[in-house]
From TrEMBL:
E.C. number: 2.1.1.360
Protein name: Histone-lysine N-methyltransferase, H3 lysine-79 specific
Lineage: Eukaryota, Fungi, Fungi incertae sedis, Chytridiomycota, Chytridiomycota incertae sedis
Extent of Basic and acidic residues compositional bias: 21-38
Domain annotation DOT1: ranges: 164-489
Keyword Nucleus: yes
PROSITE patterns membership: DOT1
Species of the source: Anaeromyces robustus
Gene Ontology biological process: DNA damage checkpoint signaling; DNA repair; methylation
């Protein structure tokens, strides 16, 4: 493919991609920088009568309003009216207790010093497995020994309940190829994750274990490709989870609950990826090879290692310079609860990043889990003033610069001049030679304020090779330079 043809295809695809991913989004969400419309939403308390009547029938609402009018006027209520009045008052009382509890927790949360954030995207419905699977020719019916072709609208579905009380619809079909979205695996993995990482310990036994009960039934039905068995097991699962939801086990878990386990974050990232990027992922390879815009990813296990070795903490600010489809930014925000920024120059990965982020945030709420503040920018990190502002306050900077040329790496290094003391820079190529020593010739160079340490990563940690490799963590440390300058001065005086 020549450059002209590549550019033509890119333009067509960009238009198509935007239409496909965001056609259902309201205009108010179409913010080009993506981050500025994201607003904090606090837990609101509302005590108006209509709040308590939302789920009631029209005739009940009419009656209730009359009852409250009568009560206000001090008129006597009939037995039936009194029952209505008491029912609503009971709801109000319950809500009041919950809200005062929530306020207490909010206060407590302030002392926790993490950067959890309730984005407006959290209230969006997730993209269901049923909705995202459009090419049925690569699927077959689950548990059908004749392997009949799956026809549009003629397969069975299962509705799976999540801790936030919402359902996701799954078609009971399996892919013929292993790299496609497998609804049966997703159902299985989601139930495991919810039971292990979301359900409070005291309720977990209601689901049994691998030898007994609901967990066993789901595993058995999946292994034996038993459709009826799976439907029955999921009905039981939903009923049990509904009971736990009604016990208010997940109330406030997003605002005040513990951070997610890495395995749960990996699972949610995978779900968000399969719902938004997977089917169109070949578009990421349209960029010219051996350029600064070559797309490549570090995998979730390696990101967990970065988090640990860079000592990234919940009150910190993280930035991924060249964030691609945003995978690292999302993982860091949810696994650490810190403020997490990403900046990406290319339009296609940026568009994917936005779609992934919306889906990811929505899904974090489905599991009732907190997430840090996420800010994604479609910009050139060398030019964007917002990046300069963030670099001054960042605690950890990540640059996947494996494919960047020497000139770009040098320009990035210049950006590090304003980093605060002790900021860590994680990169795939080092910015400073491992044996760098300050002398009077290089004392003014940027390398002299960075200390660097080399780390090894294992097989299958990055998308561009299965081999092991190296990464680097630099630390801003001006003290070495300061003592060098002090020594120089002292030598000059004597
Ligand atoms: C190898 S990808 C890394 C994706 C992600 N950070 C990861 O490690 O999984 C590097 C990304 O940097 C982006 N990039 C290169 N130069 C950039 C610039 N000047 N400003 C913003 N992004 C840039 C590329 O377009 C590419 O998507």
């Amino acid at each position: 493919m020549n450059d002209e043809e590549r550019e033509r295809r890119l333009q067509i695809m960009k238009k198509k991609l935007h239409k496909e991913l965001f056609e259902k989004e309201s205009d108010k969400d179409q913010d080009s920088s993506f981050e500025s419309k994201d607003k904090i939403k606090h837990v609101k308390s509302s005590s108006s009568l209509s709040t308590y009547l939302q789920s009631e029938s029209a005739s009940f609402i009419k009656m209730a309003k009359q009852v409250f009018k009568k009560k206000k006027k001090g008129e006597e209520l009939t037995k039936e009216e009194l029952a209505i009045y008491n029912k609503i008052q009971k709801k109000r009382k319950l809500d009041k207790t919950e809200n005062s509890e929530s306020r207490k927790l909010q206060k407590l949360n302030k002392t926790k010093k993490d950067n959890r954030y309730i984005s407006s995207y959290a209230s969006k419905p997730c993209i269901s497995a049923e909705k995202v699977i459009t090419d049925l020719s690569i699927y077959e019916e689950f548990g059908n020994p004749e392997n009949k072709k799956v026809k549009q609208g003629r397969y069975e579905t299962i509705k799976l309940l999540y801790p936030n009380g919402k359902y996701e619809s799954y078609p009971l079909i399996t892919p013929k190829k292993s790299n496609e979205l497998d609804p049966i695996y997703d159902i299985y993995a989601t139930t495991q994750m919810v039971i292990r990482y979301c359900v409070p310990l005291k309720y977990q036994k209601l689901f049994g274990d691998t030898k007994n009960g609901i967990i066993r039934s789901i595993i058995k039905a999946r292994n034996r490709k038993n459709k009826e068995g799976l439907k029955k097991a999921i009905t039981e699962y939903n009923k049990t989870l509904e009971f736990i939801i009604n016990e208010k086990a997940f109330v406030n878990s997003e605002e005040f609950g513990d951070v997610s386990a890495p395995e749960l974050v990996f699972h949610i990232l995978e779900q968000a990826y399969t719902r938004t990027v997977a089917q169109k992922s070949e578009m990421l390879n349209l960029y010219r090879g051996f350029s600064n815009n070559v797309y490549g990813e570090v995998n979730s296990n390696l990101v967990t290692e970065f988090i640990k070795n860079s000592e990234l903490k919940p009150h910190h600010i993280f930035i991924d310079m060249g964030s691609g489809i945003g995978n690292v930014v999302l993982q860091v925000a949810s696994q650490v609860l810190c403020e997490s920024w990403g900046v990406e120059i290319m339009e296609i990965p940026s568009t994917f990043a936005k779609a992934q982020c919306i889906e990811f945030i929505s899904r974090m709420r489905y599991y009732g889990k907190p997430c840090g503040k996420i800010k994604l920018r479609h910009a050139d990190f060398l030019e964007d003033p917002e990046v300069d502002r963030i670099l001054k306050v960042a605690d950890v900077v990540f640059v996947n610069n494996y494919a960047f040329d020497a000139n770009l790496n040098q320009r990035i290094l210049q950006k590090f001049l304003d980093l605060k003391e002790n900021t860590r820079i994680i990169s795939l190529k080092n910015f400073v030679p491992l044996d760098h020593k300050i002398n009077y010739r290089n004392a003014n160079s940027l390398e002299s304020i960075l200390r660097v340490k080399e780390y090894l990563f294992g097989h299958d940690s990055v998308s561009w090779t299965n081999e092991e490799g190296k990464y680097y963590i630099h630390r801003v440390d001006r003290s070495i330079l300061q003592s060098f300058e002090k020594n120089m001065k002292a030598n000059r005086v004597h």
